[in-house]
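Quick check before the chapter quiz. The format below is the same one you will see on the exam, so make sure you can read both the input and the output lines.
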Amino acid sequence: MDLDLSKRSKPCFKKNRTMSMGKVKNPFLKVCGIGLLTVICISVKAQKVNFTVNSKTGAIQSMNIDNDKQNMNWLIATDGSQYPWIKENYGWGLGYFTEVRRNQKNKLFWNLPASIKQDGREVTYRVGDICILVERSMRGEDLIEEYTFQNDGTEEILLSDIGIYTPFNDNYPGAQACINMRANAHIWEGDNAAYVNATRMGGYAPHLGLVLREGEIKSYEISERDRNKGNSHTRGIISLNLPDMKLMPGDEQVFSWYIFSHKGGDDFRQKLLERESVWVSCNKYVFEKGETALVKISGGQMVKDCILKKNDVTIPMKKQGTAWYAEVVMDQLGEVRFDILYGAGKKTHANCLVISNVNDLIKKRVEFIVANQQMKSSNTRRDAYMVYDNEGDSIYLNDTPNCNPVDRDEGAERLRRITQNENMHPSVVKEGKIELLADVDGLFQVDVERLYDVNSVDEIMIATRHTNTAVKKGDKLAGMRVIPLIIDEKRLEEAEKKAGPEPLLKVTPWKLKTAGVITTGSEVYKGLIKDQFTPIVEKKLETFGIQMTKHVLCNDDTKMITDAIAEMKEAGVDLIICTGGMSVDPDDKTPGAIKASGAEIVTYGAPTLPGAMLCLAYFEDDTPIVGLPGCVMYAKATVFDLILPKMAAGIKIERRDIIRMGHGGLCLGCKECHYPVCPFGKEA
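Here is the expected output.
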């Protein structure tokens, strides 16, 4: 959706704002995980970053550096002159987001301004109720860009899949042009510590750097690169992705970065530190099993304490001058993730790889290449090394008849698009594989039937967690890949058709905040025995962010229990829980009291063990009320653990949902309970 200039009379950002950049607002950044290219450095004079702005779009259309003999434009042309398909809507500083309100999603773009001031140094865009203010100023030789997103409406809005276009001139038209006038853009999307190091392909300075000043970059995307356009000769249009924003009316969130020139690797790192950033490094990034990794973070006085986690296991760090470090034995084969927490709530990460033995790995790879990938029969390509199709056990030839191959990474991205929804983000695609991770704590759900249909397509696969699973932010949700090295376009089209227009996956954040608990039983009411039920329920509620705000004790009396339910309902709690009095004994009154409260009974009884005596009902306003059997008090996992995640996410449970619990609803009563990592409550 483009902006409609005829509907821009409503003012944006009513409060007075200044362009002063004398003080850095909450600066943070760090560098990690990627070894910078060694570049040739030459002595240059002042290296101020200059820019021009497109008067129509408000986007930056050129970016140059003082005293650059080649006067290189670090941005790809967006007027169609460089590539016909790259137009003004991809200008630097334009972008997009998906607006979510009242469970409705709409992807929107900002590409035409409501106002432009100071020759493009202050540009305001309006998309519906969202205003985006872009402010540009110079601080010394640096260009500072600040993006402010404001909800100018009257209701809460969630912005997801937020991207800002940064079209670095990373493409390959020819050797001479590449050496002098093109860049390799090295992107590190390191959470609160992200950067872009754009180095001239010829290796000589000046080069261009971008580093976060305020905010977070969680990933990046590539547009306008496919078989019909840029292919391997162009990087495409890069957009940097921001984390989701939940904006109440009048709320705003600010994001900014520095853009500066530098002379190469060492100078780039020094300039990051000068801009109050941090630098994270490992002694190397591929280890043999048993080797020791030295993980180090430097950043001056701003790094007062640090926490290092290896695959969620905390590792102590030691201080050395202004740096922190840890020595970690790499004893686990495969990918190893280091999460680094530093400063006031800042975070980043580094990824390493652990292999068994370098020499063995190289030997096996060489043997395979020689045996399988060298042409031996062709006159024109004899002895050439070719792409090998593992599935077909043969060399892949580009001129194979009727072949329209899609490479594995593109194929994986297309599988991601049919699965990914809001509240999740993808990993970097690698060797045809991509994963989705949760952005929030919430309920993970899968459209199982459509997933079955998609997985019935040959040569692709999507694996997920079980549906209706509680997940935490950062949890892995799904993995998908294209199985062969190349895949026929028709396979992907078939998968996309079977998936349909809606994503296969969903993560719903926890919505219920408060609960009232009614504890029933004459012995507890009279103080003859201690209430051991309520503390267990309260602890289970806390797992989902629900606070017990009201608690009453009741005798085994139907009217007393019914009155207590009415009191809870009047207090406005999000969830009402009754404990005790749930069996079929004559003195167990809770099910009758729930029915008498006016709530509509969904079920009294559930095909689960433990938990068969469950009672579930809803009031007209969809407030849930649940009667819990006594097994919840002594069994580690019961029917309550199966239904609570759905209730916490605000999803209404129907009778058919309860009936389906029979398959997988038998707890095996293991000596050591591992729930939820067990088959209890898991559908096939």
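If your answer matched, good. The first strand starts at residue 30 and ends at 31.
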